[in-house]
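Write out this protein's structure.
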Amino acid sequence: TLDDWLKSDNPKLKNATLKLISSDFYLAREILTKERIEIIMQESPECRARIAAAIGVLNNPSHNKELKKLLHDSDDAVKMEAIKSAGKIRNEEFIPILIAYLDSKSFRKTAREALANYGDKIIKELAAYVSDKKVSLKIRLDAVKVLGLLGSQNAVDELLENISGLDIPVRHQIIKSLNKLRKKYQYLIFDKRVEAALLEELKHYHSVITILNSAEQNSADVGESGGLLRKALKERLEDHLERIFRLLGLLYPAKDIYNAFTAATNSNKTIKANAIEFLDNILTTNHKKLLLPIVEDSISEQVIKNVNRANGQIITNEREAINHLFEGSDLWLIACAIYTVGQKGLVEEFKTQINNAMKSQNQLVSETAQYVLKQFA
């Protein structure tokens, strides 16, 4: 009988029996008493992994204590099965443990899927992790990905609520998750916060290009350091452009916008021209004024004024662009702004911002501020 096989000294027979039992709710309920589970938990990793799976099948709160132990097991295979079972049981006490596993490359994907099984009731807790800068960046990014798996309007609303003001990597992941939700669930609504995020992204783009143009025109900004600054700024422009198009994908047919982005960033002039013509046909008049000059590489002062006016803020010169970078959340660009201040001889004018930067928890920002004060003050 199955009960006898579980008592067998043959590990293969015992493991095969547990595999059978763990796949059938009625067998598991009949044979796996609390006492039997506790005994098997003292045996081999293979047996413990089967028990972890069986607890998920049983979905009985009386076994939560045992599952919690298995979630902290020394064997990876056991932990993997325990994570899956936690996602089936969906008890709140497992949530912090599952979120902690988002920081592990080995368990991240399984933990995301387990957390997604909780549905909307986990949204607020995930959002708290996303906005907490003391939490590991990996956990924050994966918490965003979990929200993107939920497929609910509540998840969309929470992502949109957090689309501004967070670190650039988190913001980027939020937009990517929104793109996936839009593609998979046609019934979801993306409100005016997308438009606001688009304008914010455009403003960041124009701030960066203002600094970049100044760096390229400044004859004193030469050598390796100047080249690194320009390279960093150009990379940021590419990142901003990708996010601009991703946000457009939430306002217009996503596939069309993706194809337009691919063509617009192509080095072939004919393909790029076709993309510009397509965007000219599909975009609203307001979006054309703001976006086409970027694609055409023909940004003028008037275009920048249009973005500023739409966003309710004004950037009319390089100093205001630098100040905008200081106020942003992109730590790398803050470091670039500090460096630019030193190169331009504007240390005294931005002394308050640089002193604040010296206190930053980000090493790059604080060290750049120290360097600029030492070299240029």
